[in-house]
Design a protein that fits this description.
Layout: H1 9-12, H2 22-37, E1 58-65, E2 71-76, E3 83-85, H3 94-109, E4 124-131, E5 138-144, H4 152-162, E6 168-173, E7 185-190, E8 195-199, E9 202-206, H5 216-230, E10 237-241, H6 247-253, E11 258-263, H7 266-278, E12 284-288, H8 291-300, E13 307-310, H9 319-328, E14 332-337, H10 340-352, E15 356-363, E16 373-379
Parallel strand pairs: 5-6, 10-11, 10-13, 11-12, 13-14
Antiparallel strand pairs: 1-2, 1-4, 2-3, 4-5, 6-7, 8-9, 14-16, 15-16
Helix pairs in contact: 2-10, 3-4, 8-9
Length: 383
Amino acid sequence: MEKLTCPYSRRCGGCQLLHLTYREELAHKQAIAQKYLSRFGRVQPILGAAQPCYYRNKVEAAFGTDRSRRVIAGTYEPHSHRIVNIERCLNENQTAAAIIATIKTLLPSFRLSPYDEDARTGFLRHVLVRCGVRTGEVMVVLVTATPQFPSRQNFIRALLSAHPEITTIVQNVNSRRTSVLLGDREQTLYGPGFIRDTLCGMSFRISPRSFYQINPAQTEVLYRRAIEAAGLTGREKVLDAYCGIGTIGMIAAAHAGEVIGVEQNPAAVRDAIRNAKENGVKNIRFVAADATAWMQAAAEENLPVDVLFMDPPRSGSTPQFLSAAVKMSPKRIVYISCCPETQARDLPLLQKGGYRITLLQPVDMFPHTDHIETIAVLERPQK
């Protein structure tokens, strides 16, 4: 594949590797994985994306005005609140980008203004578009500064006329002085208030706040490799820590005896329970709890676990979690990480507990960016 060009790359800062061909990018990411993980064993060749463009199924755009008072929308420049007016992004779902472009043109005709952070005036702060890549369902979330929505029905009618592919529209109200995208209040203006998408043959309900991987094609690659490496036979008791809305645990449940998912976010747990019910997955249950605290309690109770899946945040896991994992002594630990540096920091604590590393597998989840996902599989030697 040839090198791609983007007129916004210098200001946007989102695509750090756009100056490379995709083959060169994969070689660069392979080198990153080896830099941090090669001391633990052989790093497998990175699993690249078949389609490295337009993969983001979740697109966020901040709204504002330029010096001529024209409506603009896009991302913030790094370390600032200056909006880069983006018409087309090589990473973002093209349907989502087109919807955001339409909203930019609709605002002036309905006399609706973007929010001004300094003056604290105006209406529309952000637009969030989520696309079900496999189902074709589309959610539009209008993040507004006030609950009042002048000409609401006419605006919605015009937006749906331009984009009949939209299946639901939600208004989220965020009146706080904050960089957090979503506020606490929301109401559904059109459709059911959520969309669905399928992943590894299962259906997942996605609400405005749901965590869902932004690159579903590569997520399937990641999950299938991780579950394959777990060596499940259908009898194991599996623990899915930091489980989010339960995606990998539900997919693994088809190959396991029982699965427990642990997640701190109560909204994500509610989504997980609903998703399991709608998919008919009966051998899984979810717990709303801090992963470290739950693991420590489970270790004290000698809870039997055969396989542990762990997918912590970018900051990695905690020494207390890893110590509890060693005490629980699962036969196999599958550690999925979005930061090989923190994963490399954590792995020695598991090795000191008697585990040996049997697989190091990088996966390119976010083409054109410097992010990389890695799978490390650890096994406890048989006694």
